[in-house]
Design a protein that fits this description.
five-stranded parallel β-sheet, single chain, alpha/beta, Rossmann fold
């Protein structure tokens, strides 16, 4: 199986990109959903404080690739030669996926901090940062678990500062290239 790891800072547009992969028939597994599900399983509300705590607990209890390992178990049931993983955040997770897949490509979605902050404020999820300070703290937390390394090693970079149609069109082109390679 070939894997496309979709990475980027919170609010960069990873979900929009992943949705385009899904529309093109590529199965998508969302790493954040794994963390939110585990947060609920522990009887906690999936807000930014609890998801942060659970994410760190999972990695402390089962190693830095813990979330990726849960995703791999979901890949086993797929009848596809390609899949996308939304939300890869560390090189340890990349290693887990590289051990599983025949081929791994990292696709980074990039947007400026001000653009991402506005998007996070507008999307209405319970884990959205309440203010600029909590936004910066979240960014630093994401970088501290290794997201910067994954971004630095990306094979493909999509800049998402424009309209939703622009990122969708850019993604459609990438999906076709990746599916044909």
């Amino acid at each position: 199986m070939d894997l496309i790891l979709i990475t980027g800072m919170p609010g960069s547009g990873k979900t929009e990109v992943a949705d385009e992969f899904g529309k093109a028939g590529v199965p998508v597994i969302v790493m954040g959903d794994v963390i939110r599900t585990e947060t609920r399983r522990r009887g906690l509300e999936p807000d930014s404080i609890n998801t942060k705590s659970v994410m760190l607990d999972m990695r402390q209890e089962n190693g830095p690739g813990a979330v990726a390992k849960r995703c791999v178990s979901k890949l086993d049931g797929l009848e596809s030669n390609i899949a996308a993983i939304e939300g890869c955040r560390s090189l340890s997770e990349v290693e887990v996926f590289e051990e599983y897949a025949e081929s791994v490509k990292i696709l980074c979605v990039h947007a400026s901090p001000s653009t991402r902050f506005k998007r996070l404020q507008n999307r209405g999820r319970k884990d959205a940062p309440l203010d600029w300070e909590s936004f910066k703290e979240r960014d630093l937390r994401e970088i501290s678990v290794g997201l910067g390394g994954v971004i630095a090693l990306s094979d493909i970079m999509l800049v998402n500062e424009g309209t939703i149609d622009e990122i969708r069109n850019s993604t459609k082109k990438q999906v076709e290239v990746l599916k044909s390679s």
